[in-house]
Write a structure and sequence with these properties.
This protein has 157 residues and is of the alpha+beta class. Helix content is 22%, strand content 24%.
Length: 157
C-alpha cells in the first residue's frame, strides 16, 4: 500500500498551528512561551531548584525511573476469599476474614465486579479444612447483604 507523505504531515502542521495560536494569544494560555520569544529577546532558561536531601540515607541509593513501594503498616493476619454469585447479573466480591476477640469472626468486604468481569468459567478448588469456618462466615455475610444471591461459589486465597 502506498501513502502520500504530504498527508502524514497534515497532523503535524495542525499541531504546530494550534501551538503558535496558543502562544500568540494570552487568553489562550496563562504562561509565556519562551520558545517563541517576543521582540527578538533571547529565551530565558528555566529556574533551577536545589536538590532536596533524601529523607532517609537509604533513599539516596534509589535509581530514577523505577517504581518503589514503602510498607507503612502491617495489619492483622487475615484469610482471603473470593465469592461469585448471581443477582440479576454475575457478581464477584473479595473478602477477608479473621478471628477477632474470643470466638468472634470478623468479615471485611473488599473490591467487587459485576457483569462479564464476574464470570467464572470453572469451579473453585475445595476450601481447606482449617478455614472452612471462616468461609462459612463469609458466605453468611453475603447472604445477609444479598438475600437474592443464587449460585454462590467461594474460593480461598
Amino acid at each position: 500500500m502506498r501513502t502520500d507523505p504530504a498527508t502524514g504531515l497534515l497532523p503535524l502542521f495542525a499541531l504546530l498551528a494550534m501551538g503558535l495560536t496558543g502562544c500568540a494569544h494570552a487568553s489562550f494560555s496563562s504562561y509565556r512561551c519562551d520558545w517563541l520569544p517576543e521582540s527578538g529577546a533571547e529565551p530565558t532558561a528555566p529556574a533551577t531548584r536545589p536538590a532536596l536531601a533524601p529523607i532517609n540515607p537509604d533513599f539516596a541509593r534509589l535509581r530514577p525511573f523505577r517504581s518503589y513501594v514503602q510498607i507503612l503498616d502491617v495489619g492483622p493476619y487475615e484469610e482471603h476469599f473470593s465469592v461469585w454469585y448471581s443477582c440479576i447479573e454475575p457478581n464477584v466480591r473479595e473478602f477477608t476474614a479473621r478471628r477477632g476477640n474470643g470466638d468472634r469472626i470478623v468479615v471485611v468486604p473488599g473490591n467487587g465486579a459485576w457483569g462479564g468481569l464476574a464470570v467464572r468459567d470453572s469451579e473453585p478448588a475445595p476450601i481447606p479444612r482449617r478455614v472452612r469456618e471462616l468461609a462459612n462466615a463469609v458466605l453468611a455475610e453475603v447472604r445477609r447483604h444479598v438475600p437474592d444471591a443464587r449460585n454462590l461459589r467461594i474460593a480461598y486465597g
